[in-house]
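Please review this one.

:::
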Amino acid sequence: MKKSLKEQTQEYYQKHELSQAQLSQLSNLLSEDTQESTKPSYSSWKFGSLAAAIVLFASSIFYYPQYQQEQLMQSIAQEVAKNHLKMKPLDVRTSELSAIQSRLDKLDFSPLASNHFAFSQQNLLGARYCSIQSITAAQLRFRSTDTGFKTLYQVPYDAKKFGDIPDTDKGEQPLQRYEKGLQVNIWKEKGLLMVSTQPAQQ
């Protein structure tokens, strides 16, 4: 007697049905596989460490030059503030910039009138040799009725030595730092690095 389709289907699944022991074994295998997949493997840990190292390296490339530049600017501010407060004797006593240009003949450049410093409005007393970061510079000294003594330092601008400095010829504003009770402004103008100091306003 020919069996119906339903009967044939039941016989097929009964023949291929897993025993209780087989079902239990399969369940254990699946459980172990799930646990293994949730554990971080050595390869995934290694990849994570590499990614973290790459991020750290990229951050250091971006931030370290900025840190170095800020350290340099702080060093310059400290150096000129120290020179300002010492008030060493002037090598040239004059109120004429032309006399300073001709008599400070050991310089590799000619001191210039700064537009940013409002040079023409200052009472020039004279100048002397000094240095900024071991480079021979000119220190111009002024007396102001409202703030006391001011000094303006000039040295040839070297991008490799001084890095990226605001250029007032392009309308950029000088960096401003405070050191030893002085306001220190740092900028680039007419091919020179210029640094001015004056008593900080209260």
